[in-house]
Amino acid sequence: MNRKQIIIVALLVVSAFAKAYSQEIPRQTLSKDEAVSLMLENNFGIQLAEKQVAISENNTSILNAGYLPSLTGNAGTNFDRTSSTTDFGGATGADGNPRPNIEIDAAETTRYNASINLDYTLFDGLGRYYNYKQLQEQYNLTQLEARETIENTMLQLFSVYYEVARIEENVGVLEQALRISKDRAIRAQYQFDYGQVNKLQVLNAEVDITTDSINVLNARQNLRNAQRDLNVVLNRDLENTFITDTTVTFINELIIDGYIEQAPQNNVTLQQSEQDIIISDYQIKGAKALFLPTIGLTGSYGWNRSNNPASAFFPSTTATSNSLTAGASLRWNIFDGGRSIVALKNAKIFRESQELLKLQLEQQVRRDISNAKGDYKNALAIYALQTQNVLTNEDNFKRSQERLKLGQITSVEFRQAQLNLLNAQVTKNAAKYTAKLTELQVLQLTGQLLNIAF
Q: Are residues 211 and 268 in the same domain?
């Protein structure tokens, strides 16, 4: 088998392997909107956050607010069996004879009781009112925490999604490079057969085919790994394969600036901090309620029955009674050792701490937004430069192709032009998705990540 036949067989083997590998990947497109929907529906972290919101919502129910009365039922029974002997100590009866002892064997006594008791706090210094308001604000805070979880998960989603898209585009670039190397190898072999080039040209082409084939295989494996990473975020079958939407559009800079101006009102971290301050206000009011009296109402309905056996002096009796009672109480904790005073002071200090924390967070958020905006502009500038660089390298590569056909440059020089184009395309792909991810970070910091269409 001559060199030409060996090259053709090698190309066929590589092509067959690449074709078989590609056939394993269904060409089903996973759009950005579909990915977001799957994430919201299936992601474990989001599901856990939703459970916390549901618990917090249950806590805001009137059933948990202390406004309803408590109603308790009690019932009981007692059983007693007694044997007794009554000795009169020699006392005589009306007939002058000693009175006999009276013996009662296994006398049984049974008692039954049942009652329903009502207890209702009419006024507790508004403590339960402020507690109820705290629960409502805690529910709002839990919703903000769930929103933060969704935002962070969405950033994670698109970080992996765009990684898949980047590798997909790189695979296309590498496959194109492999096709060019195959064509060059065949052309070099024909040129060698007709004595137009030396053996070195053929060997260089073969080496480049091997290198490009390995690059394609590695890129495809990286693509599979990235797809599995995305399937983890979406909580679906790890071996589910797909292609992504590689289209990327950027938001107008003026719109971004508008988002930044509204960031203090929309940033989820600052909103949580504000919610903590509201909760601390109700904690102070709840602590003040400890200084006020508590007024309560009570009511009870009871039933009792008692079966008493005969005794030495009385016959057996059965007693049944029903009772209905109602009352009111006032309790004023005039001095509890100072615990209420300490609780109030601590509540006020905690509120001041929340104010300081909010100021700290505001400064950090402003810094993060400024950094993110700078990174975003820098990434867009780099992407623009890399786009222009690709155009320049494409022009250089086309010229090198023509000069190679005319024999004006060597295969090594042509390969360098090809590698320059390949590196420029790969770098451009990375710059594109880096810029988009920095934009998403700006949107998260300004509280707009969940309000845009992807």
A: yes
Same-domain check for residues 46 and 191: yes
Please state the domain count of the chain: 2
Q: How many CA atoms lie within 13 A of 10 on its CB side?
A: 20
3-state secondary structure of 89: coil
- Of 130 and 7, more confident: 130
Query: According to the 3-state scheme, what is the secondary structure of 304-372?
Result: EEEEECCCCCCCCEEEEEEEEEEEEEEECCCCCCCHHHHHHHHHHHHHHHHHHHHHHHHHHHHHHHHHH
74: tokens are 């009690």
In the predicted structure, residue 314 carries a pLDDT above the cut 70: no
Report the alpha-carbon distance of residue 31 to residue 37 in Å, rounded.
Answer: 10
**Cα–Cα distance, 294 to 120 (Å, whole number):** 11
Domain range for 97 is: 70-123+294-331
Cα separation, 329 vs 294, whole angstroms: 8
- 170 and 311: one domain? no
Q: What is the mean pLDDT of residues 61-83?
A: 89
Q: What is the CATH number of the domain that holds 431?
A: 1.20.1600.10
Task: Give the largest CA-CA distance in the chain.
Answer: 161
Give the model's pLDDT for residue 37: 94
pTM score of the predicted model: 0.84
Q: Which amino acid is at 92?
A: T
348 pLDDT higher than 90: yes
* Same domain for 228 and 279: yes
> Is residue 170 located within the same domain as residue 306?
no
Residues in the chain: 454
pLDDT given at position 184: 86
Higher pLDDT, 323 or 107: 323
| Residue 387 clears pLDDT 80, i.e. is over it | yes
More confident site: 192 or 345: 345
Residues 178 and 302 in one domain: no
Single-letter amino acid, residue 69:
P
Same-domain pairing of 255 and 299: no
The single-letter DSSP state of residue 406 is: T
Cβ proximity of 319 and 305 under 8 Å: yes
Kindly state whether residues 106 and 184 are assigned to the same domain: no
